[in-house]
Each structure stands twice: as C-alpha cells, then as structure tokens.
Amino acid sequence: MSTISVSSSREHRVTVRTLAARKRRAERISMLTAYDFSFARIFDQAGIDLILVGDSLGNVVQGHDTTLPVTLDEVVYHTRLVARGCRHALVVGDMPFGSYQVSSEDAVRSAIRLVKEGGAQAVKLEGGLVVADAILRIARAEIPVMGHVGLTPQAVHRMGGFRVQGRTADERARVLADAAAVQQAGAFAIVLEGMPADLAAEITDRLEIPTIGIGAGPHCDGQVLVMHDMLGLNDWTPSFVKQYADLGAAAAKAARSFAEDVAAQKFPAEEHCYTAVREAPRRPGRQAERKAR
Ligand code: KIV
Fold it and tell me: What are the structural domains of the chain?
C-alpha cells in the first residue's frame, strides 16, 4: 500500500529517480496517455505520475486502424501541447514507427527532437533485443528511455494482428529476453503490453527497473491506460480496460440538448447575450445654454 498520498506527491515533479524509489518501496505507479493541453492538465492535477503522448494518437485522435501512419512531427506537436499542461507528471514522448528503426543515429536524432521541440522528459520505443543499441545510444545522450515489450502495436504485421504475446514457451522466452535486453541497455522503465499475468509477474520480479502494465495483469509495478478507453470515448472497450467514466455518452447527450435548444430557439437565452453600454443623457453645454437665453 502506497504511503505517498496523491496530494502530497503532487507537490513535486516526478523524475526517473522517483520512479526507481517507488519500485524499491513497492509503491505503485500510474500512467495515462494524453494528447492535448486540457486533458494533460486534468490528469496532472489529479496526481497521475506519468503522462504518455502515445502513438496511439494514430488510433484515438486520427482515426487510423494502426499506429503505423503516425509521424515524428505529429508526436512532437502533441507532446508540446501536453508538456504545457504538466507541472507534476513526467512527460514521455512515444517514438513513432520509422523514427528509430533505420539506425541508432536516427533514433538519437528523433529522441532529441521529442525533448528539444516537444518538451518531453523521456521517450518510449517498442522492441527488445533489436532496439537495444538504440536504447543505449539515446540513454548516452542523457535522455531517459522507457522500453515496451510483449504486444508491440508497431509490429502488428509481424505478429499477424494485435495478438497477446508470450503464451507459448518459445514466445515466453523471447519476451523475457527482450525485457532483460531493454534493462541491460539502460532503460529506466518498461511497458509490458498484452501478455499473461504470470509472465508480467516474472519480468517484474526479475527486473530492477519499474514495469508498467497494460493488459498484463495486476503484478506490474504500475499500470497504464489509453485515456479514450478509460473515459469511454471509443465505440469499443478492450476486455483488459476498466472504464472509469462514460464521457462519450455525456458528450453525445450534451450535443443533442444543444441541437434541441437551437431548434427551439431556447439558446441563447437573455443571460447569454451581451448588452450595449447605456450612455447617460447629455447635459446641454454652456454655449447652448447661452444661445437659449
Ligand atoms: O501508444 C500508446 O498509447 C502506448 C500505450 C498503450 C502504452 O504505447
């Protein structure tokens, strides 16, 4: 059980050191995605530890089926909006497909853009052994790196769909090796996505760095959710998600009421209208008074 209350933890900026200490003290870590200033500020003030500007913006903001079309320019832009809304949470910029796979030099350049232009305090990239060198080089550029293994959405075509990873013995060994490689390369934390809960528990136990789970069971050091899923802003909610609000239904209801009010000429009412400045009646000037006499 955490000894840090949400309000006391809000007084300080979360850093990679805070997160390492949290793991040592077995205090859980919360992370949510955000893509704009308004929601970033709400989550930050609510005491969320990390805000991820995820490439999931391709799905939930841009309406694509995968995250693959998202560009580095787009993540930089959204990171800038989010960073402006955060005083407490650590802001993590997600490295989109194509921004780190070609070479480690490319990866460092992309990470630097997320920090320099976007205002991110850390970056995240997907993969294990194959991206270990990129993680090492980015970390050497003094940029904290978060890894991401298991179901890695940018590998959707290799995986043959968004499939849970690590169910067979072979897959399990591969996910374990990937997680170890990410830590070895110098990552400060790692996302474990879409894997059996006992595999996530084993990784969490083996690694010194915090694990942040999504669809990976309750034994991770922290949990992350995509904001549109947990707030009920999508048509469909994955089974591993707990929906904490139904903002989609609330927004639809509000929009319907607005349209009805406009049709019935109930909006705007008097209290929504500006009034003209009333000028005091002019007193006749001295010349006018003299003429009149
Ligand atoms: O892009 C994203 O939102 C993510 C989370 C699902 C971890 O990578």
Answer: 6-248 (3.20.20.60), 250-292 (no CATH)
Give the residue-averaged pLDDT of 74-82.
99
Bridge partners (DSSP) of residue 192 are 149, 213
Between the CA of 55 and the centroid of ligand 1 the distance, in Å, is 6
3-class SS of residue 176:
helix
Q: How far is CA 42 from CA 58, 61, 187, in A?
A: 22, 18, 28
Q: How far is the CA of 213 from the centre of ligand 1 (A)?
A: 10
| pLDDT value, residue 12 | 86
Give residue 264 CA to ligand 1 midpoint distance, Å.
44
- Per residue in 156-200, pLDDT (tens digit) is 999 999 999 999 999 999 999 999 999 999 999 999 999 999 999
Ligand 1, residue 124: give the atom nearest the CA.
8
Both tokens of residue 195?
A: 């894997």
Which residues does ligand 1 sit against, CB inside 6 Å?
Answer: 33, 52, 54-56, 94, 191, 214, 224, 226
Indicate the helix (H) or strand (E) that contains 239. none
- Give the closest residue (by CA) to ligand 1 atom 6: 226
What's the pLDDT tens digit per position in 135-160?
999 999 999 999 999 999 999 999 99
Q: What's the pLDDT band for 2 if we cut at 50, 70, 90?
A: very low
Answer for the pair 44, 87: CB distance below 8 angstroms, yes or no.
Answer: yes
Nearest CA to ligand 1 atom 8: 54
Best CA proximity match to 226, nearest among 211, 209, 238, 217: 238
